[in-house]
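User: ok so my PI wants both of these folded by tonight, can you help

Assistant: No problem, let's get them done. Here's the first:
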Amino acid sequence: MKKDLRYFLKQIEERTPELILHIKKEVSPKWELSSVQKRLEADNRLPIMVFEKVLGHTMPIVTNLFASKRHLALALETSPEQVIAKFAEAQKNRIPPRRVDTGPVKDVVLRGDAADLRSLPLVTHCEKDAGAYLSSGVTILRDPVSGHLNAGIYRNRYLAPTRLTLNLAPLCHAAEIVQRAENSQQPVEAAIVIGHHPAMGMASQQRGRIGEFELETMGGLLGEPVDVVPCETVDVVVPADSEIVIEGRVRTDSWEDDGPFGDYWLYYAPPKKARVFEVTAITHRRDAIFHDVFNVGPEHLVLFALGMEGVVLSQLQTIIPQVAAINVPVSGSGNLVYIQIRKDMEGLGINTALAALGAYRFKCAIVVNEDVDIFDDAKVLWAVMTRTQADRSFFVVPGSYISRVDPTGYAPWHSADKDDRILSTRLGIDATKPLDPSFPEVAEPPRWMWTQLDLNAYLK
């Protein structure tokens, strides 16, 4: 069986049925669907959800595919602790896609006016979002200058039956491609892919070099080539086993307002100008499943963090071999990184925090010893409170670019526009123990006993 969305859902149903929830009650795509997700999240429940009946539409919606590291691990058939390592390995050992003549995504082909976005169950997630958004689509662009393909997830606001926005972060490869095309007055041909094996979404987050096609990393994650087919109206290839594909062109001479939108910081991002995507065709499976990502839910952050973790871990270990592991926790909205080190010299914690802040746009880096579980926020906070002094263990780096949506950002000193709040101050924390042998030991029962205890013998 092909490793696609249906393969993944079948695996979940068979192996971890407690992790999938079928909602049979009809729900509205405006607020109600995301309200169900939010309520479950408030109860610390993060199942994959299949909404079987969506008001006004025939397509079911699946969501929460990326809600935790456990979800990613199930998709990659590994353990949560090995997800980052497997992702990094897939980026090194990419498998090129394989072209085929056709595939299920060609079951239905709609062109021109028949390619109407209103046929898709686009979701309005948050109360003050500017409207319905496509939040899960992997956009594949053809660079008109180099001919290379590039893929990434960018939000799309519904504007009209054949028009969407395409919101590109300033430093992403797609923004660079589109800017070069604008300079040469060329449109950019593209396709937005909705619904495939979660490995597609993961691969779209790679932080490689421009020109490295993300579907090759997807192949590395799956251990097999991704079958691709040519689009109907643009010179782009897309996965043959996708659920839905929206074909079109990115305008380089037109902009529209995008926002407010509930962003990964969990605040509303204010309205900004975004590129316009003009639809030329829609193709989909006969019984297509629509995939949605809850923009202020944990899956947005888990997926977003994966790309950072994969590249930052390898960079840090090159500079500081004592780095054992890293974690970008959901609690930090993608702006916080925990680093675990094998400390063998004083000053290594500060050096590691400096390196981590330089490796990516983190707002805060916290460094701990190997005895601290970096996948448990409470354990990291314990280390900060018991192993630091604010005047020695903390340092700040002002005037750095982190994110254009940081609600506490400030303008450059020379900027005439004081609303141009693009700068932030970074924080590094060395929460490692001093090497002084007189520093107290952690109090616990014998580690060999409690870690190897067979609880079932006591709890029957």
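One down. Here's the second:
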Amino acid sequence: MAPITLEEMDSIKLMNRIDSKYVTNEATLERILESAAAAGYRVLESGGQRKSPYDSVYFDTPELKMFYLHHNRRLVRQKVRTRSYVNSGDSFLEIKRKNNHGRTSKKRIGIEPFEMMEFSGNPEACAYLAKHSWFTVEDIRPVLETRFTRITLVNPALTERLTIDTQLAFRNFRTGHKTDLQDAVIIELKQDGRAASQMKGILLDLRVKPLRVSKYCIAVTLTDPVAKTGRFKVKVRAIEKIIGNHLTTI
């Protein structure tokens, strides 16, 4: 695929955005990439790299309030995480918010890499959290680490972006348990709601169906035997069916 730079990516504004998530496996991903290349999709290239490792730490209250807001189907909810973009070395505190219309917004502020697990000594980050979320730094603690590798594609018309996450692995700080999603692939399609989607056609042809999943919620379901996870166990079973194997935890 031809490359697209981060600067070009930042210039693409999807003002009337629709987000859709899909789960598939690596064998099907090869066919998706072949079809995308034939359709003229471009791949994000940064520092000569087309695969970008991500390391994220999710924060929550001792009672897992953010997890249970999602589990209990609250439309208005938040997630708080720190994220390191491994190739560039950039790290951020990020606050994701979903409103009652299903729209997701993300705000972030830069932090130092050593603050991924503990940023209470950073007054700017603490003030940013208090301003843009329902929580203060005293309310939350690190709960879970996620690691994955991401590929990002853009269609020729610059009306949709596709993030493809592979090699997903999780570590729960509360329980000490670890797990991974084997060869599962999580795809998120962000498209301009006014434009036709080439990628939806590709996914339909390959029988890849939408499946709304949260990495944080799936990871807690797999690694916390005490948490109430009934709603998300259905998602875990769906992923196991897609990869043709049981997911295990150590």
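The chain has one domain: 3-243. The chain has seven helices and eleven strands. Good luck tonight!
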